[in-house]
Amino acid sequence: MSLPNSADVMGVGTPRDLIVAIGAGADMFDCVLPTRNARNGQALTRSGRVVIKQARYKDDPRPIDPACACACCVEGYSRAYLRHLYLAGEILVLRLLSLHNLHLYGELVAGAREAIRARSPTGESSFRHRSSAAPRPISQPTASCRAPIAATSASG
Question: What is the pTM of this model?
Fold first, then answer.
């Protein structure tokens, strides 16, 4: 349901795309990317994607993102255990990765809200401060909602 004078954006999915849309005046979003990516074994972080099914996580004791405050990361679910759950077809991993990805999006939008309240044009500076990736200028949105947050190695 749209509110009067609201700007709805549908299908925009990456964190960077959300920041660009907020900078352009978007108020509401409808996006499946955080949960769809989770169902496909991908966790989103401020420094890129973690594809949990990759072999490099087989013995990795770290949480998805040590700086994340979501229940998945705080409760000590290791990358190795999440990989095991994913490869075993356990539904718990889909919930945990979705929880993590949605938490990241919540933090991103909260940062944008803080920046707006501080009279900054977007939350981009807040996001940039916590991200290792240099954001694109507001005038250059990404061409695809499947663009990565940051360049990451696809080997594994």
Answer: 0.72
65 in a structural domain: yes
Domain count, the chain: 1
Strands (E), the chain: 8-10, 28-30, 42-45, 48-51
Beta strands in 3-47 (DSSP E): 8-10, 28-30, 42-45
39 domain-assigned: yes
Quote the domain boundaries for residue 92. Answer: 8-130
Residue with tokens 């890129």: 48
- Residues facing residue 48 across a β-bridge: 45
Looking up tokens 């660009």 gives: 20
What is the residue type of 134?
A: A
Give the tens place of pLDDT for each residue, 31-53.
899 999 999 999 999 889 999 99
Instruction: Tally Cβ neighbours within 10 Å of residue 7.
Output: 14
Helix (H, G, I), strand (E, B) or coil at 50: strand
